Amino acid sequence: MKVTFLGTGTSQGVPVIACDCNVCCSTNKHDKRLRSSVMIETHGINISIDCGPDFRTQMLRENVKHLEAIVFTHEHKDHIGGLDDIRSFNYISGKPMDVYAESRVQDTIKNEFSYAFAKVKYPGVPEIMLHTIDENPFFIQNIPVTPIRLMHYKLPILGFRIGNFAYLTDIKTISTEEKKKLIGCTHLAVSGLRHQTHLSHFTLKEAIGLIHEIKPAYGYITHISHQAGLHSELNETLPPGINIAFDGLSFELDEPQLKS
Ligand SMILES: [Zn+2]
Ligand SMILES: [Zn+2]
Ligand SMILES: [Zn+2]
User: What is the rounded average pLDDT of the residues 207-223?
Assistant: First the structure.
């Protein structure tokens, strides 16, 4: 199984439009952060967790030739905004994209992309096959996926575990019960926005705290704001085994066991 960070930036991305801070002006490619999502390649299929406004650029950059499913963590625009661009994959596969989301998230998708759900569709609109999920385990084809309930301020959202990789973005709190689903993860990605406290997001310190509790072999921090500082300086300050993710970072781990 291979995991690739498609984007590692917070909702505005980095650089932020019209910002002259040292991070936004940095020439280091690791300080260029598209909106957050990850792609998982497993058992011959590609799964994207979220599909933000930079989806098209990310698919082109990673030279993705097929995508079998998209799983949504929640309905905020930085996580769903690129859904129109699945059309290219519709043309290649000749079928609708399998999209997994909670009912509330589906309602927003149907609103924001109403033309894709019209009774009489204009030719060429994105073809979407919605699958309803909740906090119970489900399968994408025969690959087991474990949702993990997170709170994003007052919004209940989902993180996901596939095999020994777990991806928790836009997290502010997680219950003790849900943490148990992370036991045994070898690779754990957690969002950590910046140093300063935020209403709906973990700070870097809070993200590191959760990674320390779970003790994966590798921890990654994502969904990063320009306010977090320069990638090179920030990465130096992290404890061993934890890294600030960057766009295009990938790693491999054991394939998950398939449904028998
Ligand atoms: Zn977000
Ligand atoms: Zn800036
Ligand atoms: Zn959000």
Answer: 98
Task: Give the whole-angstrom CA distance, residue 118 versus residue 125.
Answer: 10
Distance 58 CA to ligand 2 centre (A): 21
Q: How many beta carbons lie within 10 A of that of residue 88, not counting itself?
A: 14
Residue spans per domain, the chain: 2-247
Give pLDDT tens digits for 160-176: 999 999 999 999 999 99
CA of 120 to the centre of ligand 1 (A): 32
The number of the ligand nearest the C-alpha atom of 78 reads 1
Residues 42-65: tens digit of each pLDDT: 999 999 999 999 999 999 999 999
Neighbours of ion ligand 1 (CB under 5 A): 78, 170
Query: Which CATH number applies to 2-247?
Result: 3.60.15.10
Most distant CA pair in the chain, distance: 55
Q: What is the pLDDT of residues 5-52, one digit of tens each?
A: 999 999 999 999 999 999 999 999 999 999 999 999 999 999 999 999
- Side-chain-side CA neighbours of 131 within 13 Å: the count stands at 15
Ligand 3 midpoint to CA 79 (Å)? 7
